[in-house]
Write a structure and sequence with these properties.
With 938 residues, this protein is mainly beta. Among the domains are: 217 residues, Immunoglobulin-like (Sandwich); 86 residues, Immunoglobulin-like, CATH 2.60.40.1930; 72 residues, Immunoglobulin-like (Sandwich); 136 residues, Ferric Hydroxamate Uptake Protein, Chain A, domain 1, CATH 2.170.130. Helices cover 14% and strands 36% of the residues. It is built from twelve helices and 50 strands. A hairpin with a 6-residue loop joins strand 8 and strand 9. It is globular and about 85 Å long. The two termini are 46 Å apart.
Length: 938
């Protein structure tokens, strides 16, 4: 990137000199865009994985590249957050990985105690990336298989009837993993539209394990149509079978005029995108007709449901797209209504041309008005081109040199005379200047041979490159690497990170060829840009909502009892754990403090912060720490994945079967030849909470949430912990009352914190004053939201009569008992939660004592990838080497000659291996390469 960056700077400088008389409005627009990019510099994240799919018990290996807008390493982030999200959009596990110089790596063990069969989305982000929305995060979706579930192998074929409208006939074949058909097997069957049940039936497979079923779809569109089959003998065994029929009415068809507007009388390229109910592109074709039904244009998808056609919309005319699918039904979709006045643009970006031709079109009322329009082109956070013009006639064209832009997505924006964006267009610039990576190995090896691999990396001019690379080698018999569909560091950084939404098969668009280039241009016409909120840009008052994390630091604020900042207050920080830390600092005029240059947290380190007066007394005030809250989960960014056992191919099936056998063999080797997949067993004494003031004695409760439960809950509030973990807890109303209360099953809950009932602090509103709705509820809720799981040692639940009796005696008088339970003493109508805090100071320990216990999220420490070593003296003949990932190395570094050498051992079976290598020089140049190795027998 060193060369390209200097080109950009020179180009921008030349532009500034050549346009010394540039109108102030253009300069103002450019200044605001530059200001925005300076305040909010972009950050991109891409993760390379060892393979595209996994099974329960497997390990995900990855390397992450965190780059800035120039594709140099980002200095903004030293922590990367990785979440595993299930198909119910719940975060199953959160991880934090350290990063340095724009690199991170790690592994995630898919433990069967945590992960279960189903669809998952892995998302990764830095805290800084949250300023640009969840659409800027990195996402990878996959279906996690579990061969230990003794799965069915299912093949399905569903067709819409030619005779009965909306009628679907489905043939679903069931077989065992050994391919033996399951004849005469009975199922409870539900047809689901998302979470809505459309149809129920009891069905049975016939000869060949085939179950035939007919059903009628509702006339309204369906999304995520599935058949759920439950084994009648084993009610826990279930299969979810996607049914893709793609009726015309179920197609999501969108039309996007080039530049963003359809203006009457102006020639316009209109892009379209058709998405089926399975979330993937559907190649359709049809006609564009006017009000009279005359054909004005025809359209046909070019690739993955996307295409483009030209239309000159006539004033006052209404246009409709009509198309049909295999069901024979025709669907109509209205095009955007043409505006009577406006401007738009059209870009021609020929694959072999050295310039992009951008034509601007204006309606008659925009011609010869003297109004000046402004046009800028930018890429990688830098304005590379700018011009101002007015319309002397209805059209004008600019020839923009591609040399002004770096390789990747360029963003063109047209502004009116008021500085408002009126038209936008994305184009792709390809200088063919990505890294050249040469991988050399011999053509063929025998099983368990040592395989040396020589890597040579140069730039587009042939100069050697020093860089960081990651390499995965996988067995083609188990891992299906579809190069046309798979993502890479190049597609991630140069394409996907600049576009909104899911891109199906991103590698296709960056392959050489005229058809690929045409499809790429249509993709950029139809896919939105991950970019600016123009209102924020033009307001020029942007401030990041989320802070960067260039290093690990603890920041916060000290306030008095009235929540006013306390300046010049001494704050002490004491860290426990492996690396003991003792630091002090002083708050500023806003009561804020900073502790920086702290060691990375890799264990159970906790920090105790205390605030002191000048006389070294603990203040009667509060300390708060700025903690990084997890990003919310949005369903829009999960991509469709089907269960592995439905219409599976032989490669995936072989992986699932072989991976389980490999784990068995590996366990047999590493655990003394037992051949059993060992699980860690945690032996617990009777559940008790240290320091608890349980009136019934230690460990005597109907349910206990231990210290381990609190630590696992992390940053969750006490309210969230109780709501999720305490069985039967809910909110509701007492009879004849409109105020919300807390209940445990059928009993009202009272909260006891460090032995003190919260209700003893509650002061009811003056009975003579106006009624305050839910005053008691809000009082309790405020406390439950105030404390977090990190403040707690445990929670004990008292529900049964024997466990609540002592609490009733201490906390209730006769009037209260009758008020809560008018039926009399036939058993308490009250349940209690005994909550024990770490400080033992009750509900207000953070607010009143000037003490704060902070437990940062622990970094996940990467493990080493297992690499067998075979020698003549140690052939390990008793071990069957069935690896799917033959080799993974996240830290391949080329020397000053651009060279690196690695080696690994082949596994047992004759097959071919695929090599995938990604990497960059960390200064703007990136590269991707693949290769193959043939493995013979022993």
């Amino acid at each position: 990137m060193r060369v390209s960056f200097f080109v950009l700077v020179i180009s921008l400088t030349v532009f500034s000199v050549a346009h010394a008389q540039t109108p102030a409005s253009l300069k103002g627009i450019m200044d605001k865009v530059n200001s925005y990019n300076t305040k909010l510099p972009g950050e991109k994240l891409y993760l390379q994985f060892d393979k595209p799919y996994y099974s329960v018990g497997d390990t995900i290996w990855f390397k992450g590249y965190i780059l800035d807008q120039r594709l140099a390493y980002s200095a903004l982030s030293a922590r990367v957050y990785v979440d595993m999200v299930n198909d119910s959009n719940k975060v199953i596990k959160r991880f934090v990985f350290a990063s340095a110089a724009g690199l991170t790596w790690g592994n995630i063990t898919l433990d069967d105690n945590v992960f279960h069969e189903g669809a998952y989305t892995l998302r990764a982000y830095t805290n800084w990336m949250r300023n640009f929305g969840e659409e800027s995060f990195f996402y990878k979706s996959f279906y996690l298989a579990n061969p230990l579930n003794n799965p069915w192998m299912i093949s399905t074929d569903a067709k819409i009837s030619d005779e009965v409208k909306n009628s679907v006939k489905a043939n679903i074949k069931f077989a065992g993993i050994d391919h033996i058909p399951m004849d005469g097997h009975a199922f409870d069957v539900k047809l689901m539209n998302g979470k809505k049940v459309l149809y129920r039936s009891n069905l049975q497979t016939g000869d060949g394990g085939v179950m035939e079923t007919d059903f009628v779809l509702p006339p309204t569109p369906v999304k995520n149509l599935t058949v759920v089959a439950v084994d009648k003998k084993d009610g826990k065994k279930t299969a979810v079978i996607p049914i893709a029929v793609n009726r015309a009415q179920d197609i999501d068809l969108q039309f996007m005029p080039e530049g963003g507007q359809l203006i009457a009388g102006l020639p316009t390229n209109i892009g379209f995108k058709a998405i089926g109910e399975d979330g993937l592109g559907v190649n359709i074709k049809g006609d564009i007709v006017n009000k009279e039904g005359d054909v004005a244009a025809r359209f046909e998808a070019t690739h993955n449901g996307m295409g483009v056609f030209n239309l000159v919309a006539q004033p006052g005319e209404v246009y409709t797209a009509k198309y049909a699918l295999g069901d024979g039904d025709t669907r109509s979709v209205n095009l955007p209504v043409a505006k009577p006045s406006g401007v738009t643009l059209r870009a021609r970006n020929g694959i072999s041309r050295d310039s992009v031709d951008v034509s601007f079109f204006a309606s008659d009322d925009m011609v010869n008005t003297g109004k000046v329009f402004h046009f800028i082109g930018e890429a990688r956070g830098v304005i590379c081109y700018g011009a101002s013009f007015d319309f002397k006639n209805n059209a004008t064209t600019a020839h923009i040199a591609k040399s002004l832009f770096p390789t990747g997505v360029a963003h063109f924006t047209l502004f009116n005379d008021l500085g408002q964006p009126v038209s936008e267009r994305l184009v792709y610039i390809d200088h063919k200047d990505n890294l050249n990576i040469d991988i050399k190995t011999a053509q063929k090896y025998a099983s368990r041979d040592s395989i040396p691999m020589n890597i040579k990396v140069t730039d587009s001019e042939g100069k050697p490159i020093v860089g960081s690379f990651s390499v995965a080698v996988t067995d083609d018999a188990q891992v299906k690497n579809e190069d046309e569909k798979n993502a890479s560091l190049v597609t991630g950084m140069l394409l996907s990170s600049d576009l909104k939404g899911y891109i199906e098969g991103p590698s296709y668009y960056l392959k050489p060829g005229a058809e690929n280039w045409k499809a790429l241009d249509i993709l950029l016409l139809t896919q939105g840009w991950v970019g600016y909120n123009w209102n924020a840009v033009m307001a020029d008052n942007t401030k990041p909502a989320f802070v960067s994390e260039p290093s690990f630091e603890i920041t916060g604020r000290v306030t008095n009892l009235f929540n006013k900042p306390m300046a010049n207050t001494q704050v002490l920080l004491f860290g426990t754990g492996k690396y003991r830390t003792l630091k002090d600092t002083t708050t500023n005029t806003d009561g804020r403090f900073v502790f920086n240059k702290l060691p990375l947290v890799v264990d159970s380190t906790k920090y105790i912060l205390t605030a002191h007066t000048k006389r070294n007394r603990t203040i009667q005030g509060g300390i708060s720490v700025d903690e990084i809250s997890p990003a919310p989960v949005n369903t829009l960014y999960s991509t469709p994945v089907k269960p592995w056992y439905v219409n599976t191919d032989s490669t995936l099936l072989n992986y699932v079967k072989t991976n389980n056998a490999y784990r068995f063999e590996l366990d047999k080797t590493e655990n003394g030849g037992s051949g059993h997949l060992l699980r860690s067993v945690e032996i617990k004494d009777q559940a008790a909470v240290k320091g608890s003031q349980n009136l019934n004695g230690p460990g005597t409760a109907d349910q206990t949430l231990t210290t381990a439960d609190m630590e696992n809950a992390g940053k969750a509030t006490l309210y969230d912990v109780i709501k999720e973990k305490v069985k039967g807890f809910h909110e509701g109303y007492l009879p004849h009352s409109t105020d919300i209360n807390f209940f445990l099953k059928d009993k009202r809950v009272r909260f006891v914190i460090d032995g003190v009932d919260l209700d003893r602090f509650y002061q009811a509103p003056d009975t003579d004053g106006p009624k305050i709705p839910n005053d008691h509820y809000e009082y309790i809720k405020q406390t439950l939201d105030y404390l977090t799981a990190e403040d707690l040692l445990g929670i004990e639940v008292m529900y049964s009569q024997r466990n609540v009796s002592n609490y009733d005696t201490r906390n209730l008088n006769n009037d209260e008992i009758l008020a809560i339970n008018p039926a009399g003493p036939r058993g308490s109508a009250v349940a209690y939660l005994e909550i024990t805090t770490r400080s033992g100071n009750g509900a207000f320990m953070r607010r009143a004592t000037g003490v704060y216990l902070f437990k940062p999220r622990t970094l996940t420490i990467p493990k080493d990838f297992y690499r067998p070593r075979y020698t003549v003296k140690n052939p390990r003949q008793g071990f069957s080497d069935l690896r799917s990932t033959i080799y993974w190395n996240q830290n391949v570094v080329t020397n000053k000659n651009g060279e690196a050498t690695i080696s690994f051992y082949a596994a047992d079976k004759p097959t071919t291996y695929t090599i995938i290598l990604d990497g960059c020089d960390m200064y703007g140049k990136i590269g991707h390469q693949t290769g193959q190795i043939a493995i013979g027998g022993k």
